[in-house]
């Protein structure tokens, strides 16, 4: 029995289980890992056999952990984090120093917690001085030499990024909202300046869709709350879509063109160990954030596309 229990906590099994819970589906986790869905399914079954417990249950929107699965998820996250900390401490020398980081508000709440957690475990002596603001303000601070690392919309920076990502954006509304194609579309937008706002307006105007702005805010938390409250339609990245309270809406009869905004990570040329560590972990966090999240996106069940012309 001791061997069976220890086998259950093989890191690769726990990592697969955590990934499936994070994505809300086997297909999403498999796509993220670049592996066959059947391989991940076999690993989940193996974990359930070793523990003698059912860990996942299917719903209409994917899979969620059972009560036993929620308990394992809590411990598995800590076990993997501890393993990462031990490996880092044994392999790397101490990294310390202050890094001035600038992040766009629209994505900081999504990528920052994961990046900070990993950085704290890997380099506990690094101190981050974080500025969160809109893209134009960050670009100005960057060009004034006030930041060591910045992440924002690439088009507003007059510099070459270390890495770039295309952030897919999805049209979302409250889960129980009914979209009337004969009425002006209520939209929820970021305050100017905002690349997402401009992409939204361009798409609506190109489709000939009448619309009216019902909520404007510089804060993504307010935007999400307004969507959940049924105040209108917004553009959000997959990371900020809550499947229990929001649903994704098709742009047109065939889904419409995909919308995305290009983000860049910018870093000073002369980098300390602490800056290099910060760049590496932010890069990994933003890369994960831009991957498809199949378990999160809910197919449109509205009979009319939201961009159908009102005339």
TrEMBL record:
Gene3D superfamilies: Periplasmic binding protein-like II (3.40.190.10), Winged helix-like DNA-binding domain superfamily/Winged helix DNA-binding domain (1.10.10.10)
Keyword Transcription assigned: yes
Signal peptide start-end: none
Keywords: DNA-binding, Transcription, Transcription regulation
InterPro entries referenced in this protein's UniProt entry, alphabetically: LTTR (IPR050176), LysR_HTH_N (IPR000847), LysR_subst-bd (IPR005119), WH-like_DNA-bd_sf (IPR036388), WH_DNA-bd_sf (IPR036390)
Family matches, as SUPFAM superfamilies: Periplasmic binding protein-like II (SSF53850), Winged helix' DNA-binding domain (SSF46785)
HTH lysR-type domain boundaries: 9-66
Pfam families named in the record: HTH_1, LysR_substrate
Protein family membership: Belongs to the LysR transcriptional regulatory family.
Protein name listed in UniProt: LysR family transcriptional regulator
Source organism (scientific name): Pseudomonas reactans
